[in-house]
Every structure is written in C-alpha cells, then in structure tokens.
C-alpha cells in the first residue's frame, strides 16, 4: 500500500470514528452519573438501539475473519452458531426478558441471588470473571489485532516484528475502546454500537456484492450463478459427522449454548435490561434474530467467493476475507472499512468491560465490601475496576500468539466451563420452587470437574479419548446436572417455596407483534436451512431439487396458519398473562413460580 493511500485510509478511519464518538457523546451527555445511567443506560433504550448494541456486541473481528475462513476451507455448516441463535432469541424475548425486567434486575448474578442466595451469586460471578478476563476479552483484542495486522501488513509497514506488531495493536485497540466503555457507560456503548452496526451492514453487504460482480466478470447475477454451478457442496449447511458442526448438534448442546449466550450471558443481556419498557426490549431482542439471519451472507459467502476467485491454496484460510477486501474494495472505502472493523472489536471489548465492571460493583462491592456506597461511589469503583481488568487483558492477549493451532475452537470449547452450569441453574431456578441453594453450588463445582475430564482430562490423564463431540457433551451434562438438582431438591428441599417478587421499574406491556414476529423468525431459520441444503442450492444437479419448492410452500403455509392464530388468539393470552403478573396494581404482591 502506497504511503499516500495509507495516510488517506488512516485519516478517513479517524474521521469516521471521531464522528461516531462525538455523536455518542452528544446523545449520552449527563446520562452516566448514577448506577442506572451508567450500567443500564438509564433504562431508556429503544428497540433499535438494543438491536444495534446486541448485534455489535455479538459480532467481532474473529467472526468476520474466522467464519469466512471456515467457509473458504469447507462449507456453511458453521452458520449454525449464528442462525440457530434465533430460537434462543425468541425464548429470551418472550419468557426470560419479562422475568428480568419484572424483577428490576441489573445483573444475572443478582437474579440468581434472589432465587438461591448470596453464595450462588458469588459462584457465578467468579465463573463469569474467569471466563471474561482469561479468555473472552483477550481473544477479542487479539483477533482484532490479528485482522488489522493481516489487512495492512503492519510488520512491514513499521519495520517491526510480528510479535511487536501484535503487542502494539492490542494496546492501541484496547486503550481506544476502553475509554468509551469505562467512562461512557452503557448508553454511550449502545449508541456507538448502533452507529457501527449500520456501518457493518453497509460494508458487510458491499463486499459480497463486489465479489459476485468480480466473479461474474461485471455481472452480479452471473457471479451468483457461478457459485451454485461450481462446487455447490460448499453451499451446504447440513453438517456431517466429519464437519466441525454436525447437524445433530443443533438439536442437542447448541440449544443450551445459544440459550446461555442470548438468555443469561451478562454482557449480552445487559443491553436488553436497559430497555425503556418490555415492548422496546422485545423489539430489540427479536430484531437481532433477523440480523443474525444475515450473518451467512456477509460472514460466510465472501469466503466462498474468495475460494472461487483465488483458488483453494490460501494459507492460512483466515486470509480469505482480508484478501477479498484488499483486492476488491475501492481504496477510498478502506478507511471506512477499518473504522467498522475496529468498531466491531470495540463493541465486544466494551460490552465485556462494562458488564464485568457491573457484576463486580453490584454483586461484589455493593454486597460484600461497602453496602452503604452511594451511586457516585459505585460508578467510580466500576470505572477503576474496568480500567484494571482492561490493563490485565492487554498483557494476556498477546500471549495467545503462543497458543496451539485451533485457538478459536479451543475458545469455544473453553466457554463450556461456565455456559452449561449457568443456564442449568437459571432454568431450574425459574421452573422450580423448592430446589435449594446447595444444589446450584454442587452443580457448578461438579460441572467444572466433569467437563474438563470429558473434553480433555480422560485423554491427558488416562490416555483415553472420548469420541463424543464437545457440543453433545454440553447436552449430556445439562441433563445430568438437572437430574442432580432435582434429586437434591427431593432429599433436601427449601423450607419455604421460592417466591418471585414483582418489582418492575418499567412498563410491562408486551409488544403486540412479539409472537407473530417470533413465528416469522422461526420459519425463516427453517427456510434458510432448506435453502442451503442438498435439496436447495447444494443440490449439484441443477439449481435446486424437485423437493425444494414443495417443502418451501409447506413451510409458508404452516407459517401463515401460525400467524393467524398468533394474531387472533395467542397474542391476547400472552398479553393477559403478563399483565396479571406485572401490572402496577399487583407490583408489590408476591408471585409463586
């Protein structure tokens, strides 16, 4: 890259990021002076801001580079992590979110404390903190640094080593992103996320369009036909046992992994907890599900286009997307692309820092250290803690250079240490009245030991490799741990049944189109899997098989019937149920779950 082009790219990147930072500042000035403003954006977020924040919180440079690399290497089976999240989004919007908002909770550990006790709150905070500080935050920074390093060849540009380049980029990205997260609070993060989300959608759609045009030698339709006519198996999303995501895992452990992420993971649900009312929260969460359906288009299809344009020999495969961007994106848009890429990194990093600070301040400092602390003190402590863990992550992140191959798969495996026990105790806690605190503690300790043994320990200690996919292990342990809690509840039940205290700080009237929207979202997921399957675009003997259209017509018909019932019956019953639970008249009453 010529120095003139590089200077223009950097200046235009700084301009776009500065503009977003300025707009975020104007929108949030004076909103982070108390705990509600700092942690939950003053409980004033609307649906579009929640959707934008959730989308950018979820998307990262790791996905942008990694998912395209996986599509380049194999096929679309990895889209399961993204597309099937819509099922969990529906459960979160219709069931879990009313529980969280109805109890006016700020953190998930706070919710668990109300259900089980302070001991379980501390256990879950420790699980979250270890996951965030040792893996999730460092991997977010490292993947962002790696992406920029590959795109702009930083070692050659500055005449420094690869290792020094990673350290430099990690610190630059971390410090820049941390300022907004630590000093702006949740609303500043949500506002900037929404603006970056618009940019990501623009760039995300532009890259495959330019790729199709290049593949079709100037004709976008010819480019689309080309990837269907040549190597159509790469368009298959139905994973075999040999793929990294076998199709069967969608119906086992992936259900619980996604439900944990979208329904209980603090740094994700904190966006929805800042909703101005239940209706806006449901809009934001459900809209996110539709955005997730676009992920294959701009996070996987470009990888397939890159395969067809540049051949199968690219090493490493993670260069597939950067190569496409570097060669096809106009030079004057590289600065905008860099700003959006950094925005995706900042969003995940910001969300993690803000959520870790929230949990420490609300669940540890406020409860154990200084119960009498006022809002000003809590916000100050949160900023100090956020700064501390940010600096720790700056030192841990570059160490991932020394990790073995398959780093990203290892990270997904590592989340298994805390996702399943948390979703287990949340669901059991919601659907039971007599399961005691000791049951939750036993399950957390049991899971950490059992999961390690099943995934790594048996082979490392005894030389025996368990030939079960780690996503299936998620489901096996979930069932076992639910059984453990039920047995303990039977032997040693609570003396008094748990009661859910309604204490909603916002209006709890559901969005009138929530169930209808959920029906459409569910149907689109099924249709997408049919579309990218051996009877769809991966057919191989034509564009689609003879079964494609009858199956699609059947799905549309079932969807139309479900929509009719959702409008005429289901929505009213659902609204009446929530109204009885959370109306202002009964807000102070106790409701047994």
TrEMBL record:
Q: What parts of the sequence cross the membrane?
A: 6-26, 38-59, 79-97, 123-145, 165-183, 195-215, 245-264, 285-311, 331-353, 384-404, 410-431, 438-458, 470-489, 510-532, 547-567
> Record's superkingdom?
Bacteria
Question: What PROSITE patterns does the entry give?
Answer: NA_SOLUT_SYMP_3
Q: Which UniProt keywords are listed?
A: Membrane, Transmembrane, Transmembrane helix
Of the GO CC terms on this record, one is: plasma membrane
Topology class, membrane:
Multi-pass membrane protein
Location in the cell = Membrane
A Pfam match: SSF
**Molecular function as annotated in GO:** D-glucose:sodium symporter activity
The record ties this protein, via PANTHER family, to: SODIUM_GLUCOSE COTRANSPORTER 4, SOLUTE CARRIER FAMILY 5
Instruction: Name the protein family.
Output: Belongs to the sodium:solute symporter (SSF) (TC 2.A.21) family.
- This chain's protein is named Solute:sodium symporter family transporter
What species is this protein from?
Paenactinomyces guangxiensis
């Amino acid at each position: 890259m010529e120095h003139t082009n590089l200077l223009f790219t950097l200046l235009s990147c700084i301009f776009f990021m500065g503009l977003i930072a300025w707009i975020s500042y104007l929108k949030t000035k004076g909103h982070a002076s108390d705990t509600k403003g700092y942690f939950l954006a003053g409980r004033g977020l609307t649906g579009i801001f929640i959707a934008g924040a959730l989308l950018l919180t979820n998307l990262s440079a790791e996905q942008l580079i990694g998912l395209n690399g996986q599509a380049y290497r194999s096929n679309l089976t990895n889209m399961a992590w993204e597309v099937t999240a819509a099922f969990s989004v529906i459960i979160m919007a219709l069931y879990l979110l009313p529980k969280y908002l109805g109890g006016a909770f700020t953190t998930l550990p706070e919710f668990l404390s109300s259900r089980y006790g302070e001991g379980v709150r501390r256990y879950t905070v420790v699980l979250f903190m270890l996951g965030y500080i040792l893996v999730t935050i460092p991997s977010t920074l490292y993947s962002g640094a790696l992406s920029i390093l590959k795109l702009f060849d930083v070692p050659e540009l500055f005449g420094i080593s690869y290792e020094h380049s990673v350290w430099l980029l990690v610190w630059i990205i971390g410090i820049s992103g941390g300022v907004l997260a630590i000093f702006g609070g949740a609303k500043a993060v949500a506002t900037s996320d929404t603006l970056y989300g618009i940019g990501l959608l623009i760039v995300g759609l532009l890259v495959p369009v330019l790729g199709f045009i290049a593949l079709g030698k100037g004709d976008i339709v010819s480019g689309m036909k080309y990837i269907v006519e040549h190597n159509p198996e790469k368009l298959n999303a139905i994973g075999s046992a040999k793929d990294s995501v076998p199709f069967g895992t969608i119906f086992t452990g992936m259900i619980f992994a996604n439900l944990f992420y979208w329904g209980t993971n603090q740094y994700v649900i904190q966006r929805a907890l800042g909703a101005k009312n239940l209706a806006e929260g449901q809009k934001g969460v459900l809209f996110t599900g539709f955005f997730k359906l676009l992920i294959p288009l701009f996070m996987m299809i470009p990888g397939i286009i890159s395969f067809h344009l540049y051949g199968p020999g690219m090493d490493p495969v993670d260069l597939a997307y950067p190569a496409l961007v570097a060669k096809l994106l106009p030079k004057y848009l590289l600065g905008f692309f860099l700003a959006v890429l950094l925005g995706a990194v900042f969003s995940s990093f910001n969300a993690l820092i803000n959520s870790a600070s929230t949990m420490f301040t609300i669940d540890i400092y406020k409860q154990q250290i200084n119960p009498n602390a006022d809002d000003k003190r809590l916000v100050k402590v949160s900023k100090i803690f956020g700064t501390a863990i940010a600096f720790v992550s700056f030192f841990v992140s570059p160490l991932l250079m020394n990790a073995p191959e398959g780093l990203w798969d290892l990270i997904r495996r590592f989340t298994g240490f805390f996702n399943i026990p948390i979703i287990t105790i949340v669901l059991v806690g919601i659907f039971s009245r007599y399961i005691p605190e000791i049951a939750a503690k036993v399950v957390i300790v049991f899971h950490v030991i059992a999961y390690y043994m099943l995934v790594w320990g048996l082979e490392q200690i005894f030389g025996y490799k368990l030939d079960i996919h780690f996503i299936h292990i998620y489901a096996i342990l979930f069932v076992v741990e639910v059984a453990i809690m039920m047995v303990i509840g039977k032997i040693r039940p609570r003396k008094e049944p748990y009661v859910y205290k309604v204490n909603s700080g916002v209006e709890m009237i559901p969005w009138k189109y929530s169930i209808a929207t959920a029906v459409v979202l569910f149907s689109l997921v099924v249709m997408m899997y049919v579309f990218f399957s051996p009877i769809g675009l991966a057919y191989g003997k034509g564009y689609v098989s003879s079964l494609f259209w009858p199956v699609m017509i059947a799905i549309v018909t079932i969807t139309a019937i479900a929509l009719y019932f959702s409008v005429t019956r289901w929505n009213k019953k659902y609204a009446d149920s929530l109204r009885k639970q959370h109306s202002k008249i009964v807000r102070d009453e106790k409701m047994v779950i």
